[in-house]
Every structure is written in structure tokens, then in C-alpha cells.
Amino acid sequence: MPPNARPAAFATANQHALATILEASQTKSIIASRDIFDISGTKLWARDQPVSSSLQRKLLDRQLRNPLESCLLAEDGVNSQTLVQGAQALLDGSDPLAALLKPHAARLAAEVPHLPLHSVVQLLLTAGQASRPETFDHALRAMMLAGALMAAGGGSVAELRLAMLCGLLHDLGEMYIDPRFGEADADRALDFQSYQHLVVHPHVGQLLIAQLTNYPAAIARAVAEHHERLDGSGYPHGLHKDALSPLGRLLAVAETALAVLRGRKPYLPRISVALRAVPGEFDLGWVGHIADASRAHPALHATLTPQDVTARLAHLDHALKAAQDGATQLIADAETGALKDALALAQHLLGRLRAGWYASGLWSCEGLDALDAAEVESIEDELFYRLQGIERAARLRAGDLPSADQRRLDLLCDTLKDGAA
Q: How confident is the model at residue 362 (pLDDT cuts 50, 70, 90)?
């Protein structure tokens, strides 16, 4: 990069990232690794000076000569030994994740010390560990699970290290959004207004890695894709399978698996159910490795009676039909291309849910026993969650609409919310 060039995305200090760094500086030694200047050449902070709240005031709305992240250093922060200790704790753990990791424990443990930590990444991981420890724990878990999947797929040493770095770095972009919207499992609970904040984090993470580090481009691309889906139902760009990289596909599986383990029913077989609930969402090559591990794990446990599960099936069937019929009627009256595009997306995603309905045999679930009810209940949970997500995806695709079309979209979204309730 030419000496006077500045990555536009980081020309000013992000308020949320800076607040996290400053909070971490209360327990960690974070200093300026070089003099910090604004774009006009005014010196704002001296090299080797510890960061403090005074820096936050000086940076307010100032364009910087160099990105703030490249000017700071965490002297006693996250390092290779931190990662080794965290990895060993996971390998020695008793939660379901350990069952996925242990077959590859030796390879994973051998490669952790060799993962390169760029100074910008080291700074942000340190800030996360100190002020948002749950995000650092999630990064470690993703690092290990991504590595285990690559090891199960027979990846080389280089491929294994790339996968582990992708897992470690995949959510760095969350530090740049309001922490209320960056919680590890927030995307399963947020309303649309909050969801709009969350969906940018893969893109921010991509920019961060591409512009401020020297990691391979494949890592930045995979980070950008970790919430995308092969059938186009993911975010932030709704990419389809031909546009997604192998590492991006791997990360999507790892991220979804970890989301299930953070939920209220953290069973290993439930991960396999979630990944297969809607055919065509995930790369079956990576899903297969988790399915293989699930077979040796205790069976699912139902929380509802077979009768209750059957009643939920009827509700889901009605909700899907009402939403599909509503989208078909509304698209004929749509006045703008934006609404037609959003409704077409909703129709596509509803069709994918119906495909999951048929592929799972949910249409013929009379006389369920307790074991069958447990698996059907898990599939239902995933399909209801996907139904909720269609509302957010349609609103995101539509953007700002004229009032008449906005009312039409609201009608569909009300139907989707009623169905997911």
C-alpha cells in the first residue's frame, strides 16, 4: 500500500472498537506503537504512551493518517500460549464440542502454536478477551471446530492452519458494531432493526483482515462468507453456492454448529439435525463429518409429548401455506422492483422450507413415539427459526419502500411472525 494511502473503512476510529480497547486497557498494557497523527499532520498521541480516555476525546471525528488499529500494541495480551491453553481446555472439556474435537486432538494441539498472530489481530483479540470474554471463548471454539472439520476432511498442514485462523478471526467484525447486537447467538433473537446492525459484521471483518493484516486473501473471503448459505438464504449478500469458497462453506457449518451448542438444547445430534433441516443450505461434505460424530453420541431427548409435536406440525404446515399464498398474492400487486425482488426471495426461501418439510417426512408423522418425537421436535425448531429469518431477509432485501409497497411487505411479515410464534 502506498505510504499516503489509507483504508477508507478505517480512516476514523470506530467508536465501539475503541470503547472495547479502552475498557481492556484498564487491565492490559495497551500502548501506541507509533505516533498517531490526524490527516492534517497534527500529532494526537505519542509513541509508547498508554492509551486512555483522553485518546478517545482526541480521536473524536478525526480523520487519521494511519488506521488506529495499526498504531496500537497490546504488550501483555493474547499470544500463542494463550491459544494453546484455551485449546487444551476445550480438548479436556466434557461438553458436546469436545466429542467433535477429540478424534483430531493431536493434530489440533500441534498446530495451535504455529498460528501467526498479526499485531492488529492480537490487539483485537486481547480487547475481546478482556472486555467481552464470551466473544473470545467463541473465537477459540470456532478455531478448534474449523480445524477439526478440516482434519476430518484430510486437509494438509497449511489447510489446517488456514481453517483454524478463519475460525479464530471470523467474528472480529462484531467489535465494530454496538455490543448489544454482537452477542454470539444474537442473530437468533434480534428484531429486524437490530438485525440490520448485525448483518454487516462479516463484511467489516473482511475489510479488517484484507486492509489491515497480511493474512492470505482466502481468510478474508471466508470471514465475509461465514453467514452465507448455498441456497442464497444467508447474509450479508445472499450469495449462492457457486460464489462461495471452500473455507467459507466450512465456516458456515462451524458457526451453525456452535450456535446450536449455545442454545437451550445443546446436544450433538441436534447439530446434525440443524444442518440438514433445509436441504441445500450447507456443504454436505463438511456436514457429513459432524453427522458421523453424532452417531456415537446419546440420542436426542424430547421436551414435548408426541401429541404436542403433532400439533406444532399442523401449525407449521398452516404457517408455510399461509405465507406462500400471501407472497404469491402480494407480488402481483407490487409497484416497485424492490418489493418484487423481496417477495421473490421470500417465495424462494419458503419453498426451501417446504422442501425441508418433505425431505424430513414431516407430512407423515402420525403415531409418533417418544424417540421419533425428539428428532421431529428438533427439525420443527429449526424450521420455525428459518421462518422467522425469512421476515428479516425480505425486509433487508427490500430496503426503503414507498408507503403502499411497505404496507404490502408488512402484511407478509405479519404472516411470517404469526407463523413463527
A: low
∠ Cα 134 252 129 (to 5°): 20
Q: Give yes or no for residue 198 having a pLDDT over 90.
A: no
Task: Mark 176-211 as b/e (b = at least 16 C-beta within 10 Å).
Answer: bbeeebbbbebbeebeeebbeebbbbbbbbbbbbbb
Backbone angles phi, psi at 342, to 5 degrees: -65, -40
Mind listing the pLDDT tens digit for each residue in 153-174? 999 999 999 999 999 999 999 9
Following CA atoms 188, 192, 193, 196 in sequence, which dihedral angle do they give, to the nearest 10 degrees?
Answer: 70
Same domain, residue pair 115 and 190: yes
Average pLDDT, the chain: 86
DSSP string, 22-81: HHHTTTS-EEESS-EEBTTS-EEE-TTPBP-HHHHHHHTT--BSS-GGGGEEETTS--HH
What are the CA-CA distances from residue 290 to residues 231, 279, 293, 295, 300 (Å)? 20, 16, 5, 9, 15
**What pLDDT sits at residue 192?**
66
Crossing angle of helices 157-169 and 133-152, in 10° steps, is 150
**Position 368 in a domain:** yes
Q: Are residues 283 and 383 in the same domain?
A: no
Least confident of 56-70, 300-314, 359-373: 359-373
Q: Are 52 and 123 part of one and the same domain?
A: no
Query: Does the residue 2 lie in any domain?
Result: no
Q: Are residues 252 and 374 in the same domain?
A: no
* pTM score, whole prediction: 0.88
The pLDDT of residue 265 is above 70: no
| Residue 40, domain member (yes or no) | yes
Amino acid at 111: E
Asked whether residue 282 carries a pLDDT value surpassing 50, the answer given is: yes
Bridge partners, 38 (sequence order): 64
pLDDT of residue 69: 96
365: left (phi over 0), alpha (psi -120 to 50) or beta: alpha
The CATH number of whichever domain residue 345 belongs to comes to 1.20.120
C-alpha cell, 71: 498504531
Tell whether 249 and 157 lie within a shared domain.
yes
* Domain extent at residue 101: 80-294
pLDDT score, position 189: 55
Place of cell 461465514: 226
Tell me whether residue 1 is in a domain. no
